[in-house]
């Protein structure tokens, strides 16, 4: 009688508390598609999690487009967004706010012909 056992690894993932709904820029592909994920890898035996491969897990920025992972500790810009701070996705790069000094002033009253 021959028995075949399946061993492997499975990673459980969830959003990190305080970063729910936070979307940040991926440093690999440049898209605003990164989210803060906590990963817990486990050794599995016959598809049953048996031994944790990390006691604390890993907090990473995970891109939903290119699947790039970057440790949260290397991203102070994302750490400032904890708890909803930061106001969301910046639409312009820092230092370039689009309108330099506001919109142009109109030249006298509008005239209809």
Task: Record the SSE blueprint.
Layout: E1 7-15, E2 24-25, E3 32-45, E4 48-52, E5 58-63, E6 69-71, H1 76-79
Antiparallel strand pairs: 1-3, 2-3, 3-4, 3-5, 5-6
> Cα-atom Rg, whole angstroms?
23 Å
C-alpha end-to-end distance: 97 Å
The total of beta strands comes to 6
Which percent range describes the beta-strand content? Answer: 25-35%
Main sheet, how many strands, which sense, barrel? 6 strands, antiparallel
- Mean pLDDT across the residues is 79
Category by helix and strand content:
mainly beta
Helix content: under 10%
Shape: elongated
Could you spell the SSE succession in H and E letters? Answer: EEEEEEH
Count of helical stretches: 1
- Low-confidence runs: none
Protein name: Rhodopsin family protein
Organism: Podospora fimiseda
Descriptive notes:
The chain has 113 residues and is mainly β. The protein is built from one helix and six strands, in the order E-E-E-E-E-E-H. Strands 1, 2, 3, 4, 5 and 6 form a six-stranded antiparallel β-sheet that branches.
